[in-house]
Amino acid sequence: MRKIALLVALASATQLSAAYHVARHIAIGGTGGWDYPTVDSASRRLFLSHSDRVDVVDIDHQKIVGSIPKTDGVHGIAIASDLHRGFISNGRPSTMTIFDLDKLSTIAEVKTSGEGPDAILYDPATKHVFTFNGRGHNASVFDGEGKVVGTIALDGKPEFGVTDRAGHVFVNIEDKSELADIDAKTLTVAHVWPLAPCEEPSGLAIDRAHHRLFSVCGNQKMVVTDSQSGKVIASVEIGKGVDGAAFDDDKQLAFSSNGADGTLTVVREVSPNEFSVVENVPTARGARTIALDEKTHDIFLPTAKFGPPPAPTPDRPRPRPTILPDSFEVIEVAP
User: Fold this and answer.
1) Which CATH number characterizes residue 243's domain?
2) pLDDT tens-digit map of 186-237
């Protein structure tokens, strides 16, 4: 009987250990930087923001199957499967590109109502698209045809946003270390909540079943908030240089992609009020943004190889390291 109990305990411990690892590297190539990736699990496609285009990858066969051009300064991609459309935020011209999800062809390019659109999301409850405009300190709201139906003033620089699909959209306010709760129907800010001890929140993920939001922060913390009350529930340590977060509903795990450390922090939701770090998975320097495949539970992190930074100038006193040509890739991390 003791042997059986020991085996059960060992099996349980093995199950609790996430044991994530780098499963493969998908070569993309080309030049230029990147920002948010997006997985469309249904079509088995990964959409990669890549400088002035969106690269589309068949994730089951690890090959590029298309490209959406003329997206200068692209930041993010939102998928609206019910509309058979996708939407892209273009930071430099302050526009949004609408594309056909099946043909990967551009339908239209429309101006945002604020400067510097960064993160973007589609809210299926309202069938609206939200761009979070960093320089404009606001959010543009579009219908599926690309018509602006509202502009929401925000308290500072918005970063990543998520929807609860039940009438609320949430977005981190990076320069104020706050979280804004937007009423998706009235297009007004319902609440603004402080995120202390978080500083400079960027990535955001959501556990819709338990009303939990996961903000990842520049001071190496993941702060968990109650999405109904705004109360900070917990805080755990993560790595340096984070810019992305994800949550796996089935596994009850949250993730933080730490680009400066080259790690992926895995956090278990033991209960809605208890969270613990399971492991820090080595990835690669620069792997700071993240996308989760809900079907396979694999995680995708774009990065590249880096060379020395250019010489400082008055306009760029702290230049970033150069990106080596044709080194752009996606790291796939599997459980």
Assistant:
1) 2.130.10.10
2) 999 999 999 999 999 999 999 999 999 999 999 999 999 999 999 999 999 9
- Given CA atoms 155, 157, 162, 167 in this order, what sign does their dihedral have? positive
CA distance 30 to 115: 27
Cα(71)–Cα(90) distance, rounded to whole angstroms? Answer: 5
| Residue 322 lies in domain | 18-30+207-334
For the beta carbon of residue 298, count every other beta carbon within 10 angstroms: 18
Angle made by CA atoms 328, 331, 335, in degrees to the nearest 5:
175
CB 320 within 8 A of CB 288: no
Euclidean distance between CA atoms 62 and 41, whole angstroms: 14
CA distance 72 to 76: 12
Q: What is the pTM of this model?
A: 0.93
Helix (H) / strand (E) element for 133: namely strand 128-133
Q: State the Cα–Cα distance between residues 107 and 118, nearest whole angstrom.
A: 20
- Tracing tokens 């903000």 back to the chain, one arrives at 215
